[in-house]
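So, can you check?
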Amino acid sequence: MQRSLISILFFASSLLSAQTPAQAAATHPAFHVDVTGDGAAIILIPGLSSPGAVWDGTVQHLCVQQHHQCHVLSLAGFAGTAPIAEPLLPAVEQQLSDYIADHGLDHPTVIGHSMGGFLGMKLAADHPQQVGRLIIVDTLPALGAMQRPTITREQLLQAGAVMRDQMLKSSDAQGRAYLARVIRTMVSKPADVDRVAGWGAASDRSTVATSMYQMMTDDLRQDVARIEAPTLVLGTWIGYKDYGSKDQFEGTFKSQYQKLPGVTIEMSDTARHFIMYDDADWLYARIDQFLK
């Protein structure tokens, strides 16, 4: 069960029209932003190794067919984008907070998938006055504590270091073989498997390994109590049914989010980790209801 949810994380502008691309990159080098639509702002953050394009269908639904403005991030080092020298996760969090302030976004909704959901949690906990609503798609506050709720900080650091070092030392062939196995647990259609695999292969290995280490060794179970935004958590389990039952996975989600006031948790019975591909209608219906 732990290995399966950890494995999924291998994979997670028009508003800047007054700036040149070079100026925009200098302002927030940890990501670039594509903006679509007009209306209330929604920020969408992809998961590990995924580009902003993972949200294309969601953008069409929310910001073309409906009256919202989507700000879609693509993160440095993922899916062919150039990496940055500094650790990615804290850089994205701070630069995204600055982006919200600099562009006058009024309590935007933040939607994050996988590692993007983890970043959304961090942003909403550390900058609670900036986030209007939060939607977390298939991730946990403490991934490394999934099977061992009482794991210590030192143990988290040790386990995270082992995983990071294994990722960095593996050969390209080993990485591709592992990726091929893992992706089939995360998304169903062959075309989507190929798409996600391509993103993973094009991602910077050091950025992926370091980001995974940062998320594995962090524990937000207490920090989520600082989140003021109404929060919707959408989880999956069917792709990992060999590792546990729906009740077990749902119980883990409820336990880890128990400090988050008023959180709503819903579990899909059909979609794998990339819910936006496996059951987009289910995802959109729950987002629409939450944003009403």
